[in-house]
Design brief:
Shape: globular
Distance between the termini: 57 Å
Oligomer: single chain
Structural class: alpha/beta
Low-confidence stretches: 1-26, 120-125
Strand content: 25-35%
Radius of gyration: 31 Å
Strand order of the largest sheet: 1-2-3-4-5-6-9-10-11
Number of helices: 22
Mean pLDDT: 91
Length: 912
């Protein structure tokens, strides 16, 4: 159809004029369009595009949180009706289009047939007539005037009906197809003709978004990058995908893949968090800005590992693999498809001569003289992290690295050597003893390899902005949550505070009016629970606490389950698996979750205050089913993990990730468990047996997760039973006092959880020389590696930045930002926020960014540090604040905020 119009559109043309891009033609850049027509579209990655075409036969948008993807418009690919009578169109609109609109689709790509958009068209007989298309578009525009409408290859219709649609999708303007063997090549004459057609269309309709769809084989990311560059160089607005439209394509926007597949060897059905990889690699993967998908190699290996979404594969095998041959073949296949692989501890399969050769090794004979002693022959600085390697004579597989491998660690015995760590063309490997080690008599694991650096280099991870959940506006986040255990416990000191809740209310919760999440166990305080005689007082205290404005509500369950996995096993002894066995109770996930939440809402919560969190009890090991129920109940979840690093146990293996996905790997939010950021007083007091002041050791944990890298926010996490002893109360008071001196950023626990969820759904993409970041409703902080800075020229959505532990923290004032990076700080040409310990909103940049206005709301002592304000006038709540004439920074502070709700402070920086 495209070539059929050549004689019409080329008539009178004097020659080919290179077309200008839509960004040069219009003040606003042309929308970036993606097409994904398979099931389970990766909506997180696709939100980098402004318009995304999906196949509604494969996708239902009903469960998609549209607020999280506020910058993306979802379009449905729909076939054009074969008839265009008024009755037929009315039925079509009501029966097919209206349900799609109700789901959340806000536009439509009208396709020739109901089949997939075939990149190898065999004919044009399916194209609808101009009359039918006109009638369909007329009906659509009348019924849905706000809809975005696209056509495919309908150049003649768009020429004859200017302004009827917003976009036109054209096939293969850069490369032609040869049907035999799916061969693709450049046809210069056809390209010249097609570009002239596009140029003419732009001259006639400057606002028409013309999308050039190109195709490469599914695993060939390099091809997609190359073809996109070729199209952009020709001035086109491309989208390069695979022939089935089932990869995240590349155009002027290129999405950075952020998922890592982490392979562990566990017993079939074992929870993923029980694997060593999940325990020790969660934090490093999080810190680098990636999302771990844990897979058990003794179960089904996934087939959907493509380099459009996956930055690599991490293999961490320290237990037997049931089918090593299957793992070997699968892994070699992924390597052949160009997916990078990082191997920790062992390969999980025997390295025979052929396999070793494919990996770049040769194998030397392993027969050695008796009594041979291992020796360390070479150790790269990357292998000198927490402890040195402990050499043994167990390393009997002698690998000789080929010339393409950069050796990191070499062990020798007798006249042989073995290269047991290195960086390779396919990724990298750190085998025992260069991965983890243990000291004699110590069950704690220590890192030999530097995990961050090894992952960066083995997987060739790019320098990019990282969504950061530890901070906001440069300040470290601080949240507090209290599990329900001990609410009813009696205090062990004299006075008028007979119960733990009474003591905590007077000595901690009211004394420090900062955000705190309180939970209760229904079976402990309810009149139908274990202590009916005390219930009246306990419920009254719960209502009093829950009514405080600084308190948000959580549930700690009905009977305080001790093990959420074992209790689901047939014949599980209920009285041993719950803390509060109740007569006649048969265990039910629904009763533990829905029932306890409903009890709090009905009996304890003040009007208008919702239960926000399910705080997992006991081993805090909810199953995927439990997580789904909590999500259905409308609450967030927290607890689990084991961040307990201290000065006496200084290992990163004691720092957990932000959480773990217990679903099927399809980015489902309802199966993600959020871990507590640090452990509670039960750990610091040896299961509450002695040293009841031990909670103050959490200050060591907070310090060791702040420097040299900020790895965690501050989570002050404890139980009500800390209110029973003077020592534990004094420890809590000391912690509060020290944390208040650190000028942290207090938030509710739900605020931290929402930031974590946003970080998992955020998208990082390149747009030319710019970075495009879309984060969601809550996350407002990014981290750059040290030595990289955002630049003001052309930046949007950036409020400020500051150098901090481990990098440069970039503050956003909205859920979308665009900026470039450089190795030097930007010139002090515009005022910006360097630090603030509260939420900044309603930001305005005026006079080409030279003036700034915003509102600040903060718990505690509000404070904001302004930079690049030399010669500027400052107003704080209407009062002039005059900095020194030569001063380039100013810190604004207000008194400690004790009254609630919080005051909002207005700041204006006028640099006219």
């Amino acid at each position: 159809m495209l070539r059929r119009l050549l004689c019409i559109l080329l008539a009178g043309c004097l020659g080919l004029v290179m077309m200008h891009s839509a960004e040069a033609e219009t003040e606003k850049p042309a929308p970036q369009v993606a097409l994904y027509l398979g099931p389970h579209p990766p909506v997180d990655e696709l939100q980098a595009f402004d318009q995304v075409v999906l196949d509604p036969r494969q996708v239902d948008l009903t469960g998609v949180d549209q607020s999280r993807y506020a910058h993306t418009r979802w379009l449905a690919k729909v076939p054009v009706p074969s008839e265009a009578s008024q009755t037929t169109l009315a039925v079509w609109l009501e029966g097919q289009i209206q349900p799609l609109w109700n789901q959340g689709f806000r536009g439509f790509l009208l396709a020739q047939t109901s089949d997939s958009l075939n990149p190898y068209p065999s004919g044009e007989s399916a194209a609808p007539s101009s009359r039918i298309l006109a009638a369909v578009l007329t009906a659509l525009r009348a019924r849905f005037p706000e809809a975005t409408l696209l056509l495919r290859n309908q150049t003649d219709f768009v020429t004859q009906h200017p302004g009827w649609v917003q976009g036109l999708v054209l096939d293969s303007l850069v490369r032609s197809y040869h049907l035999a063997g799916w061969q693709m090549a450049i046809d210069p004459q056809r390209q010249k003709n097609d570009l002239q057609i596009v140029q003419n269309l732009h001259q006639m309709q400057p606002t028409l978004n013309i999308v050039d769809v190109e195709f490469c084989a599914r695993p060939d990311r390099g091809c997609r990058q190359q073809v996109a560059r070729q199209a952009i160089d020709l001035g086109l607005n491309p989208y390069v995908t695979d022939p089935e439209y089932r990869v995240v394509g590349i155009g002027r926007v290129e999405v950075m893949p952020r998922q890592l597949l982490v392979l562990q060897a566990l017993n079939p059905g074992a929870p993923p968090e029980t694997g060593t990889a999940a325990r020790v690699l969660g934090m490093p993967i999080d810190y680098l800005g990636y999302l771990a998908r844990y897979v058990n190699v003794n179960e089904r290996l996934p087939e959907d590992i493509d380099n459009d979404r996956y930055a690599g594969i991490v293999l961490f095998v320290d237990h037997p693999v049931n089918q090593p041959g299957r793992l070997r073949n699968w892994l070699l296949g992924r390597m052949a498809a160009g997916v990078k692989v990082a191997v920790f501890q062992s390969f999980g399969f025997d390295l025979d001569t052929a396999t070793a050769a494919r990996l770049g090794f040769t194998i030397a004979p392993s027969v050695l003289p008796a009594g041979s002693v291992p020796r360390l022959e070479f150790l790269d600085p990357m292998l000198s992290f927490e402890r040195p390697p402990q050499l043994t004579s167990d390393e009997v597989l002698y690998l000789h690295a080929g010339r393409d491998i950069r050796v990191l660690g070499r062990v020798g015995m007798a006249n042989q050597h073995s290269d047991l760590a290195g960086l390779t063309p396919w990724g990298g490997y750190v085998l025992a003893p260069f991965c983890l080690t243990q000291l004699t008599g110590d069950d704690l694991l220590y890192w030999v390899v530097r995990p961050l650096e090894f992952l960066r280099q083995a997987l060739v991870l790019p320098v990019m902005p990282v969504p950061d959940v530890t901070s906001e506006n440069g300040r470290r986040l601080w949240f507090t949550h209290v599990d329900g255990d001990g609410f009813i416990s009696r205090t062990e000191f004299s006075g008028n505070q007979p119960f733990a809740i009474d003591a905590l209310m007077e000595r901690v919760i009211k004394r420090y009016p900062l955000p705190i999440t309180l939970s209760v166990i229904e079976g402990e305080i309810s009149p139908r629970g274990r202590y009916p005689d005390l219930s009246a007082h306990m419920q009254a205290m719960a209502r009093q606490a829950f009514a405080l404005p600084q308190v948000e509500l959580g549930s700690h369950g009905y009977t305080h389950v001790l093990d959420w996995v074992r209790i689901l096993e047939p014949g599980a002894p209920l009285d041993q698996l719950v803390s509060i066995p109740l007569p006649g109770y048969a265990f039910s996930l629904e009763r533990e979750i829905f029932g306890s939440i409903d009890y709090i809402r009905r009996e304890l919560a003040p009007p208008g205050k919702a239960v926000r969190l399910m705080q997992w009890s006991g081993a805090a090991n909810p199953t995927g089913a439990a997580l789904r129920l909590a999500h259905r109940a409308g609450v967030l979840n927290i607890n689990g993990g084991y961040t307990a690093i201290t000065s006496s146990k200084p290992s990163w293996t004691l720092i957990s990730g932000v959480g773990i996905d217990k679903g099927n790997g399809l980015e489902e939010e309802d199966t993600f468990q959020i871990y507590a950021a640090e452990v509670n007083e039960n750990i610091y007091t040896d299961d509450w047996t002695h040293a009841f002041y031990g909670m103050q050791r959490s200050l060591e944990t907070y310090a060791l997760t702040e420097t040299p890298l900020r790895l965690k926010p501050v989570d002050l996490y404890y139980h009500y039973y800390s209110g029973t002893k003077l020592a534990s109360l004094a420890a809590l008071q000391r912690i509060y006092q020290q944390l208040l001196q650190q000028n942290l950023f207090p938030v509710f626990t739900s605020g931290y959880v929402q930031r974590v969820l946003d970080s998992r759904h955020a998208v990082i993409a390149r747009r030319g020389s710019d970075w495009r970041v879309r984060t969601g409703p809550f996350l407002r902080e990014l981290r750059l590696p040290s030595g990289f800075y955002p630049q003001w020229n052309g930046a949007q959505g950036v409020l400020g930045y500051v150098a901090g532990p481990g990098g440069v923290y970039v503050h956003l004032d909205r859920s979308e930002a665009t900026f470039t990076l450089a190795s030097t700080p930007p010139p002090p040409s515009v005022p910006y926020v360097a630090l603030a310990n509260g939420e900044i909103h309603q930001t305005q940049r005026l006079r080409d960014g030279r003036s700034l206005a915003f509102q600040l709301t903060a718990y505690g002592r509000p404070q904001v540090q302004l930079q690049a304000i030399e010669g500027c006038q400052i107003l704080a709540d209407g009062q002039k604040r005059i900095p020194d004439k030569a001063a380039s920074e100013l810190t604004l502070s207000w008194p400690f905020e004790e009254r609630l709700p919080l005051a909002t402070h207005h700041v204006e920086v006028d640099c006219e």
